[in-house]
Design a protein that fits this description.
Number of strands: 5
Shape: globular
CATH class: Alpha Beta
Radius of gyration: 19 Å
Largest sheet: 3 strands, mixed
Number of domains: 1
CATH superfamily: Aldehyde oxidase/xanthine dehydrogenase, molybdopterin binding domain
CATH topology: Aldehyde Oxidoreductase, domain 4
Strand content: 15-25%
Distance between the termini: 47 Å
Number of helices: 3
CATH architecture: 2-Layer Sandwich
Order of helices and strands: EEHEEEHH
Length: 152
């Protein structure tokens, strides 16, 4: 570790996480309705200390990221928030979720006292591009703004 607190320079990260996610989608070409059917979430967690908690972090991050990718849109009118309830601000419901397949990869991290790595953010951060790429594979159209709207 080469971090110097006094100068604020060097390598600030003592460990790195590696993750990959793949989304499978179905798109009804008549209605333009999108359904995410499966998510494959592979995460190198270092040492898996508590597998159930790891799965919870992965599932929670994927669900939150799916909302960000496809549903959650803040609307403002003349400076006032108009998406101020769950009728106007849509989040995923349990019955709308895809099947999430977690793939936990263990590569012991020598820089960590337990050998573990972080999993809090990685599951959330990479689901949007996975969904966008699945839509691209199905339609040939790139979407670069969130939430993704197939009507645009």
């Amino acid at each position: 570790v080469t971090w110097c607190e006094a100068t604020g320079s060097g390598n600030a990260y003592f460990t790195y996480v590696y993750s990959a996610q793949v989304a499978e989608v179905e798109i009804d070409i008549k209605t333009n309705k999108l359904k995410v059917t499966n998510i494959y979430a592979a995460h190198d967690v270092g040492k898996a200390i508590n597998r159930e908690l790891l799965q919870g972090q992965i599932y929670g991050g994927v669900v939150q990221g799916l909302g960000m990718a496809l549903k959650e849109k803040i609307t403002i009118d003349e400076g006032y928030l108009t998406s101020d309830n769950f009728h106007k601000y849509h989040i995923y419901r349990a019955n709308e979720l895809p099947t999430i397949h977690d793939i936990i990869i263990e590569n012991h991290d020598n820089n960590s006292p337990t050998g573990a790595k972080g999993i809090g953010e990685p599951a959330l951060e990479i689901i949007s591009p996975a969904v966008a790429n699945a839509i691209y594979a199905a339609t040939g159209k790139r979407y670069k703004k969130l939430p993704i709207d197939l009507e645009v």
